[in-house]
Design brief:
This protein has 287 residues and is an alpha/beta fold. The chain is 40% helix and 14% strand. It is built from 11 helices and 9 strands.
Length: 287
């Protein structure tokens, strides 16, 4: 049987569709901070990766191509032809694969805190082995510590506990299978095939996918732009939800999807210390 993805669909029927793919070790619930704003203008599809949340859990290892093909099957099941797509971490890896291998299916693309190659492969295979033998709880504290800055973990312990619980609810096989997908992934030579207008968002304090990984994406995806979010680690959309939501809306706005009331006023900067780097392709949005 072909594995199927679970998805939550919110927003007005008939609105442009936006698909959201989350991080390794999270469910579609990680996009709750963006949901109210995005569903004002979009039909939002939040899906769980294979082995995550309520999606099917086939035996691993998985590949990024298999994860991407599962998203295409989901879109077919929903009757969605050409949505925009935003993905964080593993969700961004899937987004790159989709935009490179099925460009006719992706309108606009946003890649958050992600990488086209995240080696060394052996470290991911070792993590998969550790999870299969000892469960996710044994790695949970280490993983969650990389998701948020230290200041955020001190100020928002309830959020930290919520995301630790989200992580440990993932099946060991599903988590391990996705680790193996990352281990085998190298999308760097495929980035030039991405035709969708692309925004890359990086967390300034992200130890999992440092800014250098985002710059590779911008250098290789034609016309891509980079925004750097200060005071944010790997789950930047959770730690700095308002900034990330505004960046997403601004990027999607350029596709003509938004009405005047939803647009960001360019006369009001994202923050007082924002700047545009040389060449106009990289901007910083520190708070």
């Amino acid at each position: 049987m072909t594995p199927r993805l679970h998805a939550s669909v919110d927003g007005p029927a008939g609105a442009p569709v936006l698909v959201l793919g989350g991080s390794l070790g999270t469910s579609a619930a990680m996009w709750r901070p963006q949901l109210d704003s995005l569903t004002r203008r979009f039909r939002v599809v939040r899906y769980d990766h294979l082995g995550h949340g309520d999606s099917d859990v086939p035996a691993g290892p998985y590949t990024i191509a298999e994860l991407g093909a599962a998203v295409l099957r989901l879109l077919d099941d929903l009757g969605v032809r050409r949505p925009s797509y935003a993905g964080l971490s593993l969700g961004g890896m899937v987004g790159m694969w989709l935009a490179a291998h099925a460009p006719e299916r992706v309108d606009r693309l946003a890649l958050l805190c992600t990488s086209a190659w995240l080696g060394p492969a052996e470290s991911w295979r070792e993590r998969a082995m550790a999870v299969r033998s000892g469960g996710i709880d044994g790695i949970a504290d280490t993983v969650v510590a990389r998701w948020f800055t230290k200041g955020f973990t001190v100020m928002r312990p309830a959020v930290l506990a919520e995301y630790r619980s989200m992580l440990t609810s993932i099946t060991a096989e599903g988590y391990a299978g996705c680790c193996e997908a990352i281990a085998a992934m190298d999308l760097r030579d495929e980035l030039a095939r991405v035709a969708a207008p692309t925004l890359v968002i990086a967390g300034a304090n992200d130890p999992a996918t440092p800014i250098e990984h985002a710059r590779v994406l911008v250098d290789r995806i034609p016309g891509a732009r980079l925004r750097v979010i200060g005071d944010a680690a790997h789950l930047a959309s959770v730690e700095q939800p308002k900034r990330v939501t505004r960046l997403l809306l601004d990027h999607l706005d350029e596709g003509g999807h938004l009405d005047e009331g939803d647009r960001h006023d360019e006369r009001e900067p994202l923050d007082e210390s924002g700047r545009i780097a040389e060449g106009g392709r990289e901007e910083r949005a520190d708070g």
